[in-house]
Each structure stands twice: as C-alpha cells, then as structure tokens.
Amino acid sequence: MILVAGSTGLVGTEVCRLLAEQNKPVRALVRVDSDSQKVTHLQSMGATIAIGDLKDPASLAAACAGVTQVISTATCIISVREGDSIETVDRQGQLNLVEAAKQAGINRFVFISFAHNPDNTFPLSDAKQAVETALAHSGMNWSSLQASYFMEMWLSPVLGFNYPDRQARIYGDGTNPITWISFRDVAQLAVAALQNEYADNRACAIGGPKPLSPNEAIGIFEKATGTPFTVENVPVSALQGQKAGATNPFEATFAGLMLQYADGDTIDMTDILEQTGLRLSSVEEYATAVNA
Rounded to two decimals, what is the model's pTM? Predict the structure, then answer.
C-alpha cells in the first residue's frame, strides 16, 4: 500500500492517477474538509481514502498503518486553511509524517522539495531542509526530489505570466536559464523513485528536458500565439527589498523564490532519463496546449 500525502493537489492527484494506472494500491490522505469533488475523483481512480491532517500525529499513525511506501507532495503554499502555516504544515507537519512513517516501519519515503541556496534562505526552504535532514536520519530509504520551477505555475497568469493577454512579468533580467518542469513530470519522477534506484537515499535535483531563460520562454509563447508580449521586468533589487521588508513567512518565501528564479536554476537530466526511461514535457508543448 502506498500513502500519498497532498493527494488533492496538482502533483498528488497525478501521483494517485499514475499509481492507479499501474494497478498499485493507493491510499490518499485527505482532510476532513477537503473538496468533495476532488475526493470523489480520487475514489473514482481506485484510491482508498484516509482522513487525516499533517498537524494531527494520531491521524497520521492511523493513515500509515499497513503502508509500505509514502509519497508526500503536501504544502500549504497554494491552499491555506485555518491553522495552516509554513511552520505547522511544511515543517512540523511533514516532520510528523516522517515520524509516523518511521514508527510504522515504512521502507520508502519520497518527498517533493526544491533546491536550496545557502545565500538565499527563506521560511519554506528552511522547512524543506529540516524535513530532508529528518529523512536522512530516519533509517528509511528516502528521496527528496528537488524540483525546478513548475511551468504550469511560473509560466501562468497566477504568477504574472499572463499569456491570454500577451503580458509577462519576469523576475530579474530574464537571461538566466531555468529547467522548467511540468507538475505531471514531477509526479512521474516521484512514482519512478518508488521502483528505481535513481534517487535512493539522497536529495535529487529534477527539471524539464532543457534549460530556457525566461526571455526564451516568452519567445516560445510569442511563436505559439503569433503575437508579441509586453514584458515587465522586476529588478533583483526590488525583490531583495521585498524579502527584507516581508511581514510574514509567505511574503518572505515568495520573494525568496523569485530571487532564486532570477538567478536561474539549471539541471542536467541526462542520467536520470537514462535510468528511468521517462520522457519529459517541454515548454513548447505547454505553450501550444494552453494556447490551442
């Protein structure tokens, strides 16, 4: 039995779908107030439902009973509810899940994270590092998949890349390449980590098929739409000021992520693709799909 935490999110739902497609027994961890349509969708794929909350250790102990492997994609960054915070969910909540898995004798734990820059720390990166440290000392076979920037988020209107209106907000000067990755490929790589040694007992950087600067990404969208984009560049100095003046952990985290974006984030996926046999989605395919 494989427990999926964060099962109602983008990556978690796709993980459940892939596992069900492979006829793997899946247990989806959902909260008592999770969206009923999302829960029904998980059940329609064949997942069994475990009611629990990362903030409630007792519920996690019950959810882990009889489980052999865990994939945790959970975060409060996109969906925040009462009592949720980076500290209670992304740090302590994930630590609660690691401990529950350890106590249940689970032999494999795959955690979704991102790369850490010691010169640019912020609350979410600190939380992810704390969980990685706990996993490394847990005695379980573990993987932390440090994903690059999700194209479906960072190249979307949600974060200022407003392709329907042919406008794009770019953090920094847009020249530093990023290995943009699809959330579907993060799910693919997480599932592969359960049955492939590519990420055993380590933090493993993962990204898309090739690095592209934000400016190059804009060019791809302009070609897909046949229309030039209006571009707004947010200077690094402005992002540094935003981070320094942040009034809460979420503001500091988004400023930190934007600074990391401005610096670029390139990952060579050659070895991982050779080991897993997977094919990754490109920015060109994403741009064509969303502008169809």
Answer: 0.94
Taking a C-beta distance cutoff of 8 angstroms, is the pair 135, 142 a contact? Answer: yes
Q: Give the tens place of pLDDT for each residue, 58-103.
A: 999 999 999 999 999 999 887 667 778 999 999 999 999 999 999 9
Place of tokens 């804009």: 218
Cα–Cα distance, 286 to 242 (Å, whole number): 30
Provide DSSP, 121-155. --HHHHHHHHHHHHHHTSSSEEEEEEE--BHHHHT
Neighbours of 277 (CB within 10 A): 8
Q: What's the whole-number mean pLDDT along residues 179-191? A: 98
Amino acid letter, 60:
L
The pairs formed by 55-63 with CB atoms below 8 angstroms and a separation of 24 or more are: 55/83, 55/84, 55/88, 55/89, 55/92, 55/93, 55/96, 56/96, 57/96, 57/99, 57/100, 60/29, 60/96, 60/97, 60/100, 61/100, 61/103, 61/104, 63/3, 63/27, 63/29, 63/100
